[in-house]
């Protein structure tokens, strides 16, 4: 990180210090913050706010999940929100020591992976919606929405994790690590764009077929679509940031991170409180009596192959 250009007047750190990586030994007492990986102290107020707002999202989705017995959707949303909370705890730790490598790894892994769980919830929900409404209008079986897209998300997640591990363990010097992480994020953006195309195609075909759906269905689809678009904006930003690398300009712009990472993902989680399957799906009578609902796989098994 020492090759990053510094503003005039920034003092030189002591000799034999390590700025970034598992052996980092800098602290704010001996090293200027400009030498840290981000070049700034993460905002304490913003990160505490993200922790609180993600905790609220987790609690609301827990309530909605139990109210509507949507266990899969609830589980995905809670795991995503908890991931974000842990990630922002890491950024709070970096406020006190921007050179804390463990905190850096905590936040980079948890904040990066959070949206994957939200996407999984959306993929399953759209498949159930197609089956419930007009499966004959879909260009392929509803099951394929998660048989294809969830494995794609897993592949992108593995690539990003492997690339991040190689890059950070080598203090950002591993070109293979950067290339792997970039490939993973690129594949994630491609997957979401492809999903958006199929999602839009089905909605256009469905509403052109002349249904007179209640307002709740329009709200459901509208806010789910908005959540997908917000996630796409976030992933596009992270792709551009990763393309520049840790020595680029985007990684040092905290305002962009707050707006396009934290803000987009949090807004998507809140949109999915309205774009929630419980708004439009009702538990079957047997489910009300037993307090249980079928898993997404079981719900779709009676769809014709």
Question: Would you give an account of this structure?
Answer:
There is one protein chain. By secondary structure, the protein is an all-alpha fold. The chain has a single domain (33-299), classed as Rhopdopsin 7-helix transmembrane proteins, CATH 1.20.1070. Helices cover 67% and strands 0% of the residues. The chain has nine helices and no strands. The chain has helices spanning 44-68, 71-96, 101-132, 144-169, 175-208, 215-244, 254-274, 285-290, 296-299. Helix 2 (71-96) runs antiparallel to helix 3 and helix 6 (215-244) runs antiparallel to helix 7 (254-274). The model is unreliable at 285-291 and 300-305 (pLDDT under 50). Residues 285-305 are annotated as: Disordered. This is Sphingoid long-chain base transporter rsb1. Keywords: Membrane, Transmembrane, Transmembrane helix. Pfam families: RTA1. InterPro entries: RTA1.
Order of helices and strands: HHHHHHHHH
- Overall geometry: elongated
Distance between the terminal alpha carbons, to the nearest Å? 55 Å
- The number of helical segments is 9
Which fold name corresponds to the CATH topology?
A: Rhopdopsin 7-helix transmembrane proteins
Task: Assign the structural class, choosing from mainly alpha, mainly beta, alpha/beta, alpha+beta, or little secondary structure.
Answer: mainly alpha
* CATH architecture title: Up-down Bundle
Total domain count: 1
Biggest beta sheet summary: none
Report the average pLDDT across residues. Answer: 86
Give the strand tally.
Answer: 0
Percent range for β-strand residues: under 5%
Please report the first level of CATH classification, the CATH class. Answer: Mainly Alpha
Radius of gyration: 22 Å
Instruction: Show unreliable segments.
Output: 285-291, 300-305
The share of residues in helices is 55-70%
């Amino acid at each position: 990180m020492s090759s990053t250009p510094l503003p005039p007047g920034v003092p030189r750190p002591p000799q034999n210090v390590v700025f970034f990586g598992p052996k980092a030994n800098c602290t704010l007492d001996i090293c200027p913050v400009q030498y840290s990986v981000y070049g700034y102290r993460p905002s304490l107020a913003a990160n505490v706010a993200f922790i609180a707002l993600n905790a609220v999202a987790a609690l609301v989705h827990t309530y909605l999940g139990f109210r509507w017995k949507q266990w899969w959707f609830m589980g995905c949303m809670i795991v995503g929100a908890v991931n974000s909370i842990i990630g922002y705890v890491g950024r709070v730790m970096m406020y006190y020591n921007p050179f804390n490598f463990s905190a850096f790894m905590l936040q980079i892994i948890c904040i990066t992976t959070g949206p994957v769980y939200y996407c999984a919830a959306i993929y399953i929900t759209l498949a159930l919606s197609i089956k419930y409404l007009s499966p004959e209008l879909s260009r392929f079986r509803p099951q394929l929405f998660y048989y294809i897209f969830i494995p794609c998300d897993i592949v992108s997640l593995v690539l990003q994790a492997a690339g991040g591990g190689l890059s950070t363990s080598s203090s950002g010097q591993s070109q293979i690590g950067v290339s792997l992480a970039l490939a993973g994020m690129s594949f994630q953006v491609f997957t979401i764009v492809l999903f958006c195309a199929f999602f839009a195609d089905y909605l256009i075909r469905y509403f052109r077929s002349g249904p007179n759906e209640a307002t709740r269905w329009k709200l459901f689809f509208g806010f789910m679509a908005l959540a997908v678009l917000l996630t796409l904006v976030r992933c596009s930003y992270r792709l551009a940031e990763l393309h520049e690398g840790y020595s680029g300009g985007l990684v040092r712009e905290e305002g962009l991170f707050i707006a396009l990472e934290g803000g987009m993902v949090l807004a998507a989680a809140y949109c999915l409180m309205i774009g929630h399957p419980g708004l439009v799906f009702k538990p079957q009578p047997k489910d009300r009596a037993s307090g249980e609902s079928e898993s997404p796989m079981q719900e779709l098994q009676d769809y014709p192959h």
